[in-house]
Design brief:
The protein is an alpha/beta fold. The protein folds into 2 domains: about 1-180 and about 305-355, Rossmann fold (3-Layer(aba) Sandwich); about 200-285, 2-Layer Sandwich (formyl-coa transferase, domain 3), CATH 3.30.1540. The protein is built from 17 helices and 10 strands. The chain has helices spanning about 1-5, 30-35, 50-60, 75, 80-85, 110-115, 120-125, 135-160, 170-175, 180-190, 225-230, 235-240, 245-250, 255-265, 270-280, 295-300, 345-355, and strands spanning about 10-15, 40-45, 65, 90-95, 165-170, 205-210, 215-220, 285, 305-310, 315-320. Strands 3-4-5 form a 3-stranded parallel β-sheet. A 3-stranded antiparallel β-sheet has the order 6-7-8. A two-stranded parallel ribbon has the order 1-2. The longest helix has 24 residues, at about 135-160. It is elongated and about 85 Å long.
């Protein structure tokens, strides 16, 4: 999807009954719509010799091929890098796997599997209660790293004339996300505690409950911001107490400080306090559900939430890549494809090429 948004023609190969993620229930129901825009859909049955031959022929015409089958399957189908690159030396072949080469490489992996074994679930949940992140971070970021590898390989091909194999893996992706905590251990000799149990580097960096049960995150990460926060809350005497004189002293008595602030904040309303915090330059954030983001004024004003035609003929708003290029947001380039919508268009090219 990233490559499609950036201008590539992306051809998605689907089995005759369509990609299984089109029909995921529950929390997976939005996955296909979110990550398959601007791709062309071609149905090829890789379970047949004819289908595998067609797929190989198609790969011979492409700059990049991306696959995420279980380990060894592409080799058994004759669609591995060595086989395809023998016919198309410029091919960049991307394999998305659970693990890079090593002792684990033949294991099957899922996002939640690698979150558990890559340190992320341990760091996210309370002590003794490992908790997966609230979205498919490794599935998504694994794809991002694959796209980065494609861009680097395309650049290298300009000088060498040859493609190469790129591998991106979920486990290594998750370990990369956990790397700062690994270094924390390397530097201190102490295993890092889970985030809910951590010793915060800042005294005011927490979620507070305000009037009517509303919640607001507030972060005052410098001595100046702490004084400013006390002024906004009309409690300047708090900043003048010796035990709260600087951040290190405040961290030492953080539970007591948070209790003082909580008692003050419980009488404030979010809609009244938030503008004051913004005007004073204090970092803050309401606790927002994903459904509320569909009407987020900043997302709409910045052009990051735009309509896309869906495969059933309707429309939905989708989130664009979080970048600008020359001041523009790369947008939706074509409607979400129906299963096999572009099969005739793409495969007719192969026939024309073969007869030329």
């Amino acid at each position: 999807m990233i490559l499609a948004d950036l201008g590539a023609e992306v051809i998605k190969i689907e089995p005759p009954d369509g990609d299984r993620t089109r029909k995921l229930p529950g929390l997976g129901i939005g996955f296909f719509r979110s990550f398959n825009r601007s791709k062309k859909s071609v149905v090829i049955d890789l379970g047949t010799p004819e289908g595998r031959e067609t797929a190989a022929d198609l790969a011979g015409t492409c700059d990049v091929m991306i696959e995420n089958f279980r380990p060894g399957l592409m080799h058994r189908m004759g669609l591995d890098y060595d086989t395809l690159s023998a016919c198309n030396s410029r091919l960049i072949y991307v394999s998305h796997k659970g693990f890079l080469p090593g002792p684990y490489e033949k294991r099957l992996a899922l996002d939640e599997v690698v979150q558990m074994m890559g340190g992320l679930s341990y760091m996210t949940g309370p002590a003794g209660r490992p908790l997966r992140a609230g979205t498919s971070v490794n599935d998504i970021m694994g794809g991002m790293f694959g796209a980065i590898g494609v861009l680097a390989a395309l650049r290298e091909r300009e000088s060498t004339g040859r493609g190469q194999e790129v591998q991106s893996a979920l486990f290594e992706n998750c370990v990369f996300l956990s790397s700062q905590h690994m270094q924390q251990f390397a530097m201190t000799g102490e295993p890092p505690p889970p985030m809910p149990s951590r010793v915060s580097a800042w005294s005011v960096y927490d979620v507070f409950t305000l009037a009517h049960g509303e919640q607001l995150f507030i972060g005052a990460v410098s001595d100046k911001q702490f004084v400013t926060l006390c002024d906004v809350l009309q409690c300047p005497q708090l900043a003048q107490e010796p035990r709260f004189a600087d951040n290190a002293l405040r961290v030492a008595v953080r539970p007591e400080l948070l209790a003082c602030l909580g008692a003050i904040l419980k009488d404030h309303r979010v809609d009244e306090l938030a503008p004051k915090l913004e005007a004073a330059g204090i970092p803050y954030a309401p606790i927002v559900r994903p459904d509320q983001l569909m009407d987020d004024p900043h997302l709409k004003a910045s052009g990051g939430l735009v309509p896309m035609q869906t495969d059933d003929g309707g429309t939905t708003d989708v989130v664009l890549l979080p970048i600008t290029l020359g001041g523009r947001r790369p947008g939706v380039r074509q409607a979400l494809a129906r299963v096999g919508e572009h099969t005739q268009e793409i495969l007719s090219r192969l026939k024309a090429r073969a007869s030329a």
